[in-house]
Design a protein that fits this description.
Elements (H helix, E strand, L loop, with lengths): L1 H7 L2 E3 L11 H11 L2 H16 L10 H16 L8 E18 L3 E2 L3 E2 L11 E7 L16 E5 L5 H10 L4 E5 L20 E4 L1 H9 L4 E16 L1 E4 L6 E7 L9 H21 L5 E6 L7 H9 L2 H5 L1 E7 L10 E3 L4 H10 L5 E3 L7 H6 L4 E5 L18 H18 L4
Parallel strand pairs: 1-10, 5-6, 6-7, 7-8, 11-12, 11-13, 13-16, 14-15
Antiparallel strand pairs: 2-3, 2-9, 4-8, 5-9, 10-12, 14-16
């Protein structure tokens, strides 16, 4: 096991003990669900909120708020009888220092742009150019005639980085993505140097006005910076070799808020599920992962998967991801894929509606899926406080969190290998 720890660069938690009996999966599910409760999860949400409040309103990776969050998870599991060790992984943090934009012709208006994470800066003095619409920007042919101009694209269909790279290859001076979907955009290009042109977002109203303007001219000024730093994954393992189910939730918030729904809810559910497993189902092989730097582009989960040897990867039977389990506009959303039936069957048996969604690569399941590992997960839907300062305990749907935590416990009971 030491070789696995050194390779993955994670916090390893080990607990011993095995049950002589082998209860049915249904009995294990009922036992775990009885212990994983809203009453148990709520104190973790409050603790994470207080950590953010004490550290500038954020728990973003690379900040003291994140480090305090990692220590909190470690201490909670230590009190439950686990043995913990911390280890870092490197990543590049990102900061926006100036975001300014104005339409100059045929009318003047403030654009209120927001840079995509890892957007490059504009040249000194900004970029002034005419705007050319480029559809959704997912195909190189969308950018005909964009050379030297600012490309305007719709949100959706493909990743933001694909839009930006297509615009760059076509010679665009910058790219503007307008939000034609419900909810805010707070997105990432995934990595530093993903593109060499600035990439910003604007609202649907502003985007449509730009799209309808003839020969509209825009001035953009963006100043950003990056810094090479470290964050930490927290991984709890019940010890021993053999096949294992990995269950994960990202621990970091965005820089602009405390991240209690996104994703304190997933963290709280995993802490309580880890405690329940140690007490009630020690015969199951489960690894719990709390990822760092998800909000910057899945850096923690990517580092973990990248460090796995082929043998270690082959022993992971599946990965389950829990990200945003307590959205106020609650829905029971199940990740599409080979494990969806485990969740939809659970809800159906209880007379509850659920829908299957494809969230593509927008959370920590993506590196596992790309490595050929089966993935599944749960999501409570969009939220008005998504990536905002109001993402606090008061905005969490605790009843919905309880429902999805129950479903998570059931899936673990069904899918985890036995010792």
């Amino acid at each position: 096991m030491r070789a696995l720890v050194a390779a993955a660069g994670v916090l390893l938690l080990v607990a011993s003990g095995a049950s002589a009996a082998a209860p049915s999966r249904a009995r294990v599910s009922a036992s775990l669900r009885a212990q994983v409760s809203v009453a148990g999860m709520r104190p973790h949400l409050l603790a994470l909120e207080r950590i953010a409040d004490a550290n500038g309103g954020t728990r973003s990776s690379g900040t003291p708020g994140y480090e305090a969050s990692a220590r909190y998870v470690r201490d909670q599991l230590a009190r439950a009888g686990y043995r913990a060790r911390l280890a870092p992984f490197p990543f590049t943090s990102y900061r926006e220092e100036l975001e300014r934009g104005r339409q100059l012709t045929p009318v003047e208006r403030d654009l209120r742009p927001e840079a995509l994470e890892y957007s490059p800066s504009t040249p000194s003095g900004g970029v002034t150019a005419t705007v050319v619409t480029a559809g959704d920007g997912c195909q190189p042919r969308d950018f005909a005639g964009v050379g030297g101009r600012i490309a305007l694209v719709r949100r959706g269909t493909c990743f933001f980085v694909v839009k930006a790279q297509n615009a760059e290859r076509a010679g665009a001076a910058a790219v503007i993505v307008y939000n034609n979907e419900p909810g805010p955009i707070d997105a990432t290009l995934g990595a530093p140097n993903a593109t060499r042109i600035p990439a910003v977002t604007v609202t649907d109203t502003i985007g449509r006005a730009l799209a309808s303007a003839r020969d509209g001219t825009v001035r953009l000024e963006v100043r950003t910076s990056t810094r090479r730093t470290t964050s930490r994954n927290v991984v709890a393992d019940r010890g021993g070799g053999g096949r294992v189910l990995v269950v994960g939730a990202h621990l970091d918030s965005v820089g602009s808020g405390p991240g209690i729904n996104d994703n304190g809810t997933g963290v709280a559910a995993l802490i309580e599920l880890a405690k329940a497993l140690r007490q009630r189902a020690p015969q199951l092989r489960v690894r719990f992962a709390f990822w760092g730097a998800e909000e910057f582009g899945l850096h923690g989960s990517r580092a973990y998967v990248r460090a796995l040897t082929p043998a270690e990867r082959s022993r992971i039977v599946a990965y389950l991801n829990f990200d945003m389990l307590g959205s106020r506009r609650f829905e029971r959303a199940v990740y599409a894929g080979p494990l969806a039936a485990t969740f939809t069957g659970y809800f159906r048996a209880r007379g509850l509606s659920a829908r299957t969604i494809d969230i593509e690569g927008r959370s920590d399941h993506a590196p596992f899926e790309q490595a050929g590992i089966r993935v599944g997960g749960l999501y409570a839907g969009g939220d008005a406080c998504y990536h905002r300062a109001c993402d606090r305990l008061a905005s969490v749907n605790l009843r919905g969190l309880g429902e999805l935590a129950d479903a998570a416990a059931h899936a673990v009971a069904q899918l985890a290998p036995r010792r």
